[in-house]
Amino acid sequence: MIKILLIIILGQVAFCNLNAQVTNSSYVNQYGEKVLQLSIVVPTNLKETWKLFTTDEGLKKWIAPVAKIDMKTGGAIKTNYNRSKTVEDSTSIKLDIINYLENEMLTLKVNLNNSFPAEAKKEDKNLQEILQFVKLDENNTKIISSMVGWGQGIHWDKAYNFFEKGNDWTFKEVLKLFQK
Predict the structure, then answer these.
(1) Which keywords belong to this entry (predicted)?
(2) Right CATH number for 24-176 from 3.30.530.20, 3.30.390.50, 3.90.1720.10, 3.10.180.10?
(3) DSSP state of 118
């Protein structure tokens, strides 16, 4: 019984430590627009961190078992969580690459799929994710995700809540790569 209790406590401590590593600094800017902003620090250099987000191999390590990236302005990231599907399947997620500065920034167009309220999907023209990569030192990189372009209304609040939870989960998946 003591061993089981100790395992549960250690598991909760590990989970709390993982939670503490994702920082939510979301805000409403001076123009009244929401910014969903999360960040993490990963214990690896900037170039390796960049590869996690900009190569097929890197994406497959943490985001989805099926992943393909056409890394260029106007390219796209396509992923599917189902190993038996392809990136061309209708269940795949596609993020268009708006622009990037190598090893610094990657801007993605977030395309709402049929899982989101029809009103939000119809109004979705500007929803984007800006990923910033900041070298802290030779062995640590900060990744900042800022989602902008939110609409107004309950349907947009639902989309925001989905991405707030989903982006937190996604960053935790990245952090798992560095757990021992």
Answers:
(1) Signal
(2) 3.30.530.20
(3) H
